[in-house]
């Protein structure tokens, strides 16, 4: 039996090490040329949730602030309106109810009209804090209310100040600081002139 000398042993060990490195490198390749966290197709970096047992790290949306914000703005056509803390217009839905507060916008409706979250504290500028509340939605989440009316955003509003949801379907209206409908026509007199009961 032939015994390898020191030089032979070193050569065998070196060849073995190279094969191991090649094997590990081949297994670590995902075929995408990147071994880091995935980046959304939209570009910018996203926050990554820490890995937990049984739940690998994954991209998540940036955390939202703990406190929601409400404020007033003056629209040239609608007058005083309510926006969120970033200046996006808020709406109410005629098929909801204020007494008691109830949201009837779910599923696809809620995708187009995202409910304003109502959990946590809320800052209100130019709005009576006593009018601000919340309601529990069908899915168990909390939605912010103003004078009982559940509040929503409108997905097609792309920048602060947009009011594209005003009057949609004859049931969606921009919120006023008292929870009313912005731009609503004044109420008709309850007693018509002439005393004939409207005939």
Please trace the helix and strand order, writing H or E for each element. HEEEEEEEHEEEEE
- Give the biggest beta sheet: 3 strands, mixed
Poorly predicted regions are 8-67, 187-199
Q: What separation lies between the terminal Cα atoms?
A: 122 Å
Q: Return the structural class.
A: alpha+beta
Number of helices: 2
Largest sheet, order of strands side by side?
Answer: 4-3-8
Strand content: 15-25%
DSSP strand tally: 12
Average pLDDT rating = 72
Outline type: globular
Q: Helix amount, in percent?
A: 10-25%
The gyration radius over C-alpha positions equals 30 Å
Annotate the secondary structure layout.
Blueprint: H1 6-28, E1 47-48, E2 59-60, E3 68-75, E4 79-84, E5 91-93, E6 97-98, E7 101-102, H2 108-112, E8 122-125, E9 132-136, E10 142-146, E11 149-150, E12 172-174
Parallel strand pairs: 3-8
Antiparallel strand pairs: 1-2, 3-4, 5-12, 6-7, 9-10, 10-11
Write a structural description.
The protein is α+β, with helices and mostly antiparallel strands and 199 residues long. Helix content is 14%, strand content 22%. The strands form five sheets. The protein has a three-stranded mixed beta sheet, with no helix packed on it. Strands 9-10-11 form a three-stranded antiparallel beta sheet, with no helix packed on it. A hairpin with a 3-residue loop joins β3 and β4. The C terminus is likely disordered.
How would you concisely characterize the structure shown here?
This protein has helices spanning about 5-30, 110, and strands spanning about 45-50, 60, 70-75, 80-85, 90-95, 95-100, 100, 120-125, 130-135, 140-145, 150, 170-175. It has about 200 residues and is of the alpha+beta class.
